[in-house]
Amino acid sequence: MKSSPKVEVTGVTSAATVKKESSVSITWKHLAPLLVAIAIALIPAPAGLAQHAWYFFAIFAGVIVGLMFEPLPGGAIGLIGVTVVTLLAPWVLYGPADLAKPGFNPTNAALTWALSGFSNSTVWLIFGAFMFALGYEKTGLGRRIALLLVKAMGRKTLTLGYAVTLADTLLAPFTPSNTARSGGTIYPVIKNLPPLYDSKPNDPSKRRIGSYIMWVALASTCVTSTLFLTGLAPNLLAKELVRKTVNVELQWGDWFAAAAVPGILLLILVPLLAYWLYPPEVTEGSAVTEWAGKEIGKLGGLTSREITLAVLVVIALGLWIFAGNYVNATTAALVVICLMMVLNVVTWDDVTKNSAVWNTLAWFATLVALADGLTRVGFVKWFAESVAGQLTGVSPSVAVLTLLLINFFGHYLFASITAHVTAMIPVLLAVGSTIPGVNIHALALGLCLQLGIMGIITPYATGPSPVYYGSGYLPAADYWRLGAIFGLIFFAVFLVIGVPWMLFIL
Fold first, then answer.
1. Chain mean position to CA 110
2. What is the distance between the alpha carbons of residues 168 and 179, in angstroms, rounded to a whole number?
3. How far, in Å, CA of 7 to CA of 446, rounded?
4. Which tens digit of pLDDT belongs to each residue from 27-49?
């Protein structure tokens, strides 16, 4: 074997092993977004829509396909999208009227547009909420909460289901990634429970208790993702798109008030419905509580960092609920993050090494800009007017029901709630705003409150879905069947109870 070559850096010779870089593997997932964008761009613009708006939509569609297939991380896809638009701005972002303005510089204007998402307060609120989740992880408070509930309520399988649901509910207001919350905190705890009753994955014994626990965990995190504005990152993106599209501001307290009645009802029903529709064979035992007790013993006593974090998240929640008119929600989150670092709950090193949060920041900042671009070029207005023409003569109630049905069950076509929000929410809102008599505030809330619960319908519908689908306790046939059943139940409760309640409080 040949010796490693010498590499000289600023006059200093050092030995370094030069590794041959692996070849880049280009798959159909990499090519699909590009092919979709080109195919749409080659089609003549529809009547009534400017050509540059059609080109922008082609790029936007390519980004959505990229978010669905994820050949690259979401942040990279969004950055590529806004960069392509910026480079082609004179042809895709601005029409002849803009370009004819004296002194107008499309290059500078496009760059300002591309970076606008990074100055968006909602994007930074998402960042802040992810920092709270980091605190839960670093201090171990999230795991302790889950174990304490399992120990207290784990003797019966049904109450164990409620313990899992309650643990997710307590973590949800401060963990906007349901993948981190359920897949990263709840799942690592509950995956240890089925083997205690000889319930094994990918084995007939999975139905003893494992299948029930896994389904309850998934279903409950879908509900908590709807219950809290900060329980799901795409909720915050939807909030911003609602503001930009129809000028409706959704506050944390307003969101919770609207979601509380149907959301809390579903949280109460989920463990019981799963117990009836997907019954476990083991209904009680002491093994779970004994195991949880041992794990709590390993954690030791409550640490000062855990106590500090608990106090800080309560402060943040109080500011979000009660001080919205005095302190911006994003400012409140940033204040608490600063206190977390000052009080050593997390360190700046923890923050800089958290690649997930920086990916999310880039992802949502670029998506906010791209969604704004659809409105800027006139595509959303054109599409809304075209669809509204098909709803001429339809009553406002029927129109709203139609839009809610499209939003919820249209999610079968998406493998990402973020992609769904970016593609669907502005368009459906714009359609609703053109129909006389539609309460646009109620429609905006209704569309947004579906985002969490729609995650139940498929094995790819939301972040934690692949985690539980891949656990070995939820076979494909069971998953699709239960997803359809629970999806219908969730939608029915939302429609029959949630919508009237929302209209009552608005």
1. 28
2. 11
3. 61
4. 888 999 999 999 999 999 998 89
